[in-house]
């Protein structure tokens, strides 16, 4: 009986450790409208400022998620961005509030500014045209998979 309890305890511990490891090992991603996009997190001012600048390609299943510590109107531009992007603005509850589709690259000033048209705490950038192809629309909810606790 003692062996059975010991084995059960060890199996429980192994399961708990494996579950914790799997959660940490999960690749950062977001899910919106039934679609999963691997993502890079932009959690601090420097990474949010640099964003996807100077990239020549963004796979249709990849994204960058800008995470802010507060919810307020956001304004994005495409300075030094070489590829068209869809810019999706989400409120504090992770509901999609606005989509800027196919924002054009900007290599020189003045660059267009794309507003959120409401308070946003999260901004997701996808390759241009992916939002429409995926059927994403205002009101969709975003699920974030990965650790965003390092927001500054």
Description:
With 152 residues, this protein is an alpha+beta fold. It has one domain (27-145): Protein of unknown function DUF192 (Jelly Rolls, Sandwich), CATH 2.60.120. It is built from three helices and seven strands, in the order αββαββββαβ. It has helices spanning 2-25, 45-50, 130-133; strands at residues 29-32, 35-42, 62-77, 85-90, 96-103, 113-127, 142-145. A seven-stranded mixed sheet has the order 5-4-6-3-2-1-7. A hairpin with a 5-residue loop joins strand 4 and strand 5. It is globular, with a radius of gyration of 19 Å. Residues 1-24 have low confidence and may be disordered.
Q: Short description, anyone?
A:
The chain is of the alpha+beta class. Helix content is 22%, strand content 40%.
Question: Which features would summarize this protein structure in a list?
Answer:
152 residues; alpha+beta; Jelly Rolls; globular; disordered N terminus
Task: Summarize the topology.
Blueprint: H1 2-25, E1 29-32, E2 35-42, H2 45-50, E3 62-77, E4 85-90, E5 96-103, E6 113-127, H3 130-133, E7 142-145
CATH class category = Mainly Beta
By CATH, the architecture is named Sandwich
Proportion of residues in helical segments: 10-25%
Output the structural class: alpha+beta
CATH topology name, in short, is Jelly Rolls
Uncertain runs: 1-24
The count of β-strands is 7
How much of the sequence lies in strands comes to 35-45%
Overall pLDDT: 87
**Total helical segments:** 3
> Biggest sheet: strands, sense, closure?
7 strands, mixed
Element-level helix/strand string: HEEHEEEEHE
Distance between the ends: 53 Å
How many domains?
1
- What is the C-alpha radius of gyration, as a whole number of Å? 19 Å
Q: Name the shape in a single word.
A: globular
Per CATH, the superfamily is Protein of unknown function DUF192
Spatially, the strands of the biggest sheet line up as 5-4-6-3-2-1-7
């Amino acid at each position: 009986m003692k062996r059975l309890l010991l084995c059960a305890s060890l199996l429980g511990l192994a399961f708990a450790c494996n579950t914790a490891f799997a959660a940490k090992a999960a690749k950062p991603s977001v899910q919106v409208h039934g679609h999963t996009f691997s993502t890079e997190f932009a959690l601090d001012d420097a990474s949010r400022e640099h964003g996807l600048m100077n990239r020549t390609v963004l796979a249709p299943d990849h994204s960058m998620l800008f995470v802010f510590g507060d919810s307020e109107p956001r304004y994005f531009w495409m300075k030094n961005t070489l590829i068209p992007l869809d810019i999706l603005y989400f409120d504090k509850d992770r509901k999609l509030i606005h989509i800027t589709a196919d924002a054009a690259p900007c290599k020189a000033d003045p660059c267009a500014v794309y507003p959120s048209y409401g308070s946003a705490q999260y901004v997701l950038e996808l390759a241009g045209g992916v939002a429409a192809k995926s059927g994403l629309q205002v009101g969709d909810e975003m699920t974030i998979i990965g650790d965003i606790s390092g927001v500054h």
